[in-house]
Amino acid sequence: MDDRHLEDIIGNLLRAGVLLAAAVVLIGGVLYLMQHHAERASYHAFAFEGSNVTTLPGILRSASHLSSEGLIQFGLLLLIATPVARVAMAVAGFYLEKDHLYVWVSLIVLGILLFSLLHAS
Q: Is-above-0.85 flag for pTM?
């Protein structure tokens, strides 16, 4: 595998990830508007209602049931996962190219990304 081929694969991965995330969010948004189009919005006070789309298992469960909120959240998760998948693909590509320095650098970046995503509050 050469650098050009790796760049093409990573570019296609990024395009596919963003397009898939946008499509899922769009579908969720259209469903949400279809379900809530007649509701009147109240902007006087913000009251967060407990929702099952604030945790990863809740988002996955809600999206699997085609809930509009779950699909929107799942699309956003796909968008967040796209650059993480890009770094993971870079690790694999650099490994195949036998470029050990960049494998280690990419692994460090991947570790930082995963740590920050898993320990965010």
A: no
